Amino acid sequence: MVKIIYQVVIRVFAFLFRLAAPFNYKIKLGADGRKGLLDRLRASFQTQAAGRQVAWFHAASLGEFEQGRPVIEAYRNAYPGHFILLTFFSPSGYEIRKNYNGADLICYLPVDTRSNAREFVKIINPHVAFFIKYEFWFNYLRELRKNGSYILSFSTIFRPNQIFFKPYGGFFREMLGYFDHLFVQNQASVTLLKGVGITNASIAGDTRFDRVRAIASNARELPEIGQFKGDSPCLIAGSVWDADMQVLIPALNALAGKLKAIIAPHEIKSEEIAGWRSKLNGRSILYSEVAAGQEAEGFDYLIINNIGMLSSLYRYGNMAYIGGSFGVGLHNILEAATFGLPIVFGDKSYHRFQEAVDLIEKGGAFPIADRDQLFKILENWVNNPFEAQNAGNVSAGYVQSGTGATELIMRKVQQAIG
Q: For 144-159, what is each residue's pLDDT tens digit?
């Protein structure tokens, strides 16, 4: 009965998806990108992939892609002759990474109807399929099993409140049973899976650790950022939203003249940024102005009004505030941690991020409830730089100790497919 309901829900979703496309830009991108997709795939595979083994990697969105990227690139190095297909469910992943050169072909994943899954798997005929973190699609998994493909999930983390572990979750547990192996992030996930009869799981950790270490090794030098910072202590505020700035601005104003800040919004909205600048009690400059030739020296705040620089900015910081935890969910703290920065973030929605919980416990990260708590932490780090450095060393050590997931996953792949 549940399987029938699933098929109906998927078809209704596909219908509503098309219906909503004219009224929502992101949905329209996804709908347009899927038009005629199977025909385009068939043509591509008849030419580009002919006679080659196929590895299929699927990521829901951009964050999952970044998590899977180390494995994609390790696979390419190990099997240079294989054809790599990368699919996305969300436009926020596909539109940003559609020109990524680590895959031979990049496209959307068709909606998980029976006919789509059957035709998709028939066309691509993957030797191995990788699902990154939280991607479980019943029809695709079933067709892959019928096809004899080797199916892997990695960087996955399970929690007791997920439907797989509920008395009524049998249908979803069946999906887990289609995987040949599940690489999870922690022992708690292994234990939960064993409790429902899934024994083909092991701990590899989180491939994001490997990714951020690679990012740190290849971080760009940005002389204009160094000029802005000078000899002052500098806070990197990464992926911030307005809810974060309502806490940050008063704390920064209270520390005016003692601390510089580089502010990187999660979304670039000119009116919102102008509002923040009007509330800051210091001189602020946009990165676009600096890029156009204006000197950054002598300003208190540098606001990054573009996308793609953040990971290289952390090397210029002494401390980091990571946004999202007062609203949508905490953004990536590992990029800051790998550069040895002490980290602070909101205390509202970080608990489902294992790295945040771990770093709080170890003393490398600190949750705050309001502007007063934030001010006290930042003031302490400004006045006692050795305390900030000690906390930053904890962060860097944590990332270093967490690397190696990619190697474990690739070892399993090589055992399975040769």
A: 999 999 999 999 999 9
Q: Give the DSSP per-residue string, 117-168.
A: HHHHHHHH--SEEEEESS---HHHHHHHHHHT-EEEEEEE---TTSGGGSTT
The string of DSSP codes covering 289-332 is HHHTT---TT-SEEE--SSS-HHHHGGG-SEEEE--TTTT----
Give the span between the Cα atoms of 252 and 319, in whole angstroms: 13
Q: Is 274 left (phi over 0), alpha (psi -120 to 50) or beta?
A: alpha
The tokens 């416990």 sit on which residue?
A: 361
**Residue 354 banded pLDDT, cuts 50, 70, 90:** confident
In CATH, the architecture of 2-214+403-417 is 3-Layer(aba) Sandwich (3.40)
Phi first, then psi, for residue 136 (nearest 5°) are -135, 105
Mention every residue, 6+ apart, whose C-beta is less than 8 A from residue 375: 250, 251, 254, 255
pLDDT digits (tens, 9 = 90+) for 210-243: 998 888 888 888 999 999 999 999 999 999 999 9
Partners of 108 in beta bridges? 88
- What is the DSSP secondary-structure string of 84-98? EEEEESSHHHHHHHT
For 215-402, CATH gives: 3.40.50.2000
**Where are the chain's structural domains?**
2-214+403-417, 215-402
Instruction: Name the amino acid, one letter, at 403.
Output: T
Take residue 118 and report the two structure tokens written for it: 């059957």
